[in-house]
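The records we work with from here on pair a chain with its fold. Taken together, the C-alpha cells spell out the fold as the letters spell out the chain. To see the layout at work, look at the sequence and C-alpha cells printed below.
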Amino acid sequence: MSEANSGLVDIVEPAAPIVVEATGWLPVTGVIAALLVLALLLFVLWKYKLPAYLALQRLRKLRKALQAGELTPHEAVLMLALELRHALGVRRLLADKMPQQFKQHEHTRWAEFMQGLDAMLYQHKADLGADRLAALFTQTAYWLRRYSRRSTLKKIIN
C-alpha cells in the first residue's frame, strides 16, 4: 500500500441516521388520546352521577335502619325529607313550587308526592304502614335518581 492510502483503511463509515417511521407514533398517539377521553369520561361521570349515587346509598341505609327498628316510621319520613331536600339542593320542599331543575311535565307527579309526604310528616295520626312507607321510599328514589345531580356540568350536558 502506498502511504496515501494507508490512513484511509481504518476510517469507519458514519452511522445511518435514525429514522422513525410515521406509523411508529400513531399507536402511541392513539393510546394517549384514548386515555384522555377515558379520563374526561370518568371526570364527567364523577361530577354528574356521583351525587345521585351517594344519595341513593344513604336512602338504602335509611331503609335498612327502619327495617331494623332503629328508627320509628315518623323519624324515617323526616330523615327521608331531609335527604331529599339536601340532594335536590333546595331550602324547602313545596308542593306548588318545584325545584328549578325539574322538567315541567313532572309538576303533577311532584305535587302529589309532596302532598303525601306532607301528610305523613305533619298529620298527627297519619297512616305510616309498611306499604305506604315502601311507596314513599320508591318515589323518593325516583326523584333522587332523576334530579339529585347538583353539579354545574348538568347544564352543559343537558
Residues 74 and 129 are 11 Å apart (CA to CA).
